[in-house]
Amino acid sequence: MAMPVPEKRIEHFEKLAYGMFIHWGLYSLLGRGEWAMHHENIPKQEYSKLKDEFTAEGFDGRRIAETAKKAGMKYICLTTRHHDGFSLYDTRGLSDYDSVHSPVGRDLILDFVKGCRQNGIVPFFYHTTLDWYQQDFQTNFDMYLEYLRESIKVLCTNYGKVGGFWFDGNWSKPDAEWQEDKLYGVIRKYQPEAIIVNNTGLHQRGLADRSEIDVVTYERGRPEPMSREGMPRYLAAEMCLTMNQHWGVGIKDFNYLSPKELIREICACRKVGANLLLNIGLTAEGKIPDYEKATLLRVGKWFDSYLEILLNGKPSNMKVGSDEDFILEYNQKPCLFVHNLPISGDENVTLGKISKNSVTFTAKDKINHIYWLDNKQSLDFEQDFGTGQIKLKLTGYPYGTDLVVRVAGILM
Fold first, then answer.
1. Which of 312, 330, 346 is where one domain is finished?
2. Are 355 and 219 within one domain?
3. How far is it, in rounded angstroms, from Cα 7 to Cα 378?
4. pLDDT grade for 39, boundaries at 50, 70 and 90
C-alpha cells in the first residue's frame, strides 16, 4: 500500500520534537489544578470573581520563552482559554471575561507571542472547545459554536503567524455535531500553515477521527509506532505529559517527574518519531515554579548533547534486541540510544556491577566503527554477516557521569 508523504507543515512540526505546554488561568489562583471549578462544584458566579484577583504580575513571555529555549524546546503551547471560559487574550468584544477586563489590563497572549519570537520559539495556541462559563454551551449549542469560531478568528488575525492550534474538549459531548469543518475552515483561511490538533483524550489515544487534523494525540500515554501505509494523509504524533498529577498548578502536589524520567520520556517519543509536549502549570502570578524550571534546565543540558539527532533523526528499520533501546537515522548515520547503563568504578563507591554488558541489533551493511558520542570512546563489537546481527559490547559510565540514556554513533 502507498505511503503518504508529509506536508511541509507536518514535516516541520515533527522536527520541533520537544515543546512546552503551559496551563495557566483563573484556576491558578486556587492552586488546586485546572479543573477546580468543576471538581469542587464552585458556582459560576462565585468562581468568576477570581477575575478581579487576577493580576499576572509575574508573567513575562520573554523569560518563559528563554527558559524553554535553554531546556531544548522548540515550541510552546499556551492555554489561551481553558474550560472555565476565561480568555488570556483580548476577545475584541466577544466577551468581557478576559484578561483585558481584569486587573491585568493587557493582552497576555500578545506578550507570550512576542516573547516566543524574540527567542526563536514557535507559538502554539491551546483553546478549549467546551465552556463552563458560556450558558450557550448548554442551551444553544449552535450559537456557542459561532462564538467559538469567532474566538478562533480573533486568535488567527491578531498575532501574526501561529505554529498551530491545540483543541481540547470535544470528548465532553461525544454525540454532538461540533461543526469541525467550519472551525478548521477558519484556521485554513487565516493561518493556512498552522498545525491543527484536537485532543482525543485519555480514553482514545492515537485516534485519527477527522481528516482535517494534522497530529494524533497521546495524552499521558507513550505513543506507539504508527503504520501510515494506506492513510489518506500523513499524520504526525504527539504525547502530552504533565510534570506532576495536574495540568494547572497544584500547590499541594509533591509528585513530580525527575530529570531521569523526563529524559526517558523524550526518548520514548522520539523512538517512534513522535513529539513530546511537556506541561507545566504556572504560578498564580504567572511564573514557572522553581522545581519545574530547575528540572527543565537540567534536562536541557542532556538534550543539547544530542540536539540535532533528536530533532532530525528518523526511526530506523534496524532492529534492536532490547525493549527500550532504539536507533535513529541522522545524516545517513545510525545512532544507537542505550538505556540502563551502570556506573563503573571502585566497588567502595559504586553501586552494583555492570550487568548490562552488551546489546544486539541488526544491520545489512558492514559496520566499521562504533563509539560513544559523548567521549568518542570506541566500542568492541562482533558482526555476523549471515544473520545480520551485531553484538555490541558496552562500557559503563565513568564515575561521576550518568547520562540516563547514552548514544553511540555507528559508522558503516
1. 312
2. no
3. 39
4. very high
Picking from 283, 312, 341, the residue at the C-terminal end of a domain is 312
Cα–Cα distance between 240 and 58 in angstroms, integer? Answer: 25
2 found inside a domain: no
Residue-averaged pLDDT of the chain: 90
pLDDT digits (tens, 9 = 90+) for 77-93: 999 999 999 999 999 99
Residue 401's domain comprises 316-411
- What is the value of pTM for the model shown? 0.92
Walk across the sheet containing 381-384 and list its strands.
Answer: 358-362, 389-393, 381-384
Beta-strand ranges (E) seen in 177-291 are 195-198, 215-219, 236-242, 275-281
282 and 322 in one domain? no
Contact yes or no for 172/201 (Cβ under 8 A) = no
Query: Would you mind telling me the total number of residues written for the chain in this entry?
Result: 412
Report yes or no on 90 lying in a domain: yes
Q: Look up residue 68 and give its three cell numbers.
A: 524553554
Angle between helices 141-157 and 180-190 (to 10 degrees): 10
Within this chain, do residues 57 and 168 fall inside the same structural domain, yes or no?
Answer: yes
Q: From CA 64, how far away is CA 41, in angstroms rounded?
A: 32
- For the chain, the domain total comes to 2
User: Whole-angstrom Cα distance, residue 166 to residue 82?
Assistant: 11
The CATH number of whichever domain residue 162 belongs to comes to 3.20.20.80
Segment 290-341, tens digit of pLDDT: 999 999 999 999 988 898 898 898 998 888 887 889 999 998 899 999 998 8
DSSP codes, 342-390: PBPS-TTT--S-----EEEEE-SSPP-EEEETTT--B--EEEETTTTEE
How much is the pLDDT for 205? 43
pLDDT digits 0-9 by tens, 338-352 = 998 888 766 766 666
